[in-house]
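Reopening this ticket.

The earlier resolution said the output was attached, but the attachment link was broken on my side. Pasting everything inline this time so it's all in one place.
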Amino acid sequence: MPIQSRKTRQKDAIRAAFINADRPLSPDETLSYAQKEVEGISIATVYRNIGSLVEDKWLTPVEIPGESTRYEVAGKEHHHHFHCNECGKVFEMQGCGVPVKPKLPRGFRVTGHEFFLYGVCADCK
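Inline output:
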C-alpha cells in the first residue's frame, strides 16, 4: 500500500506543478516544482507521469520551434504562447487576436494555425 500512496503523491505533485505554474512547463521545470512537494522525485518519474497525463488527455504538448516540448493542462480554449528569450520560460496568451486570412490556393481550407511570440518577459526585462 505505501508504494501506491507514493506514486499518487508523485503524480499529485506533478499535477500541482502545472496548476500552480499556470503556464507550459518543460519536464525539468516540472521536476523543480514537484521536488518542493515530494522529496526525491526523479526526472524519470516526471517523464513517465507526463506521458501518462498526456495519454489521459490531462496534459497537452506545446511544440516550440527549435526548443524542447513543453506541456500544459489540456482543455483550454484556443490560445497562443510567448517564449522569453532570456529565461526560456513559455507563457500563455489569452485568446487569439491574430487575424488569419491567408491567401490559400483555390480549393484549400484552413483547419487551424500556430502563432508564437518571442521576446523578454517582465521578470527578465
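Reporter confirms the inline version is readable. Residues 2-73 form a domain with the Arc Repressor Mutant, subunit A fold (CATH 1.10.10.10). The two ends are 49 Å apart (CA to CA).
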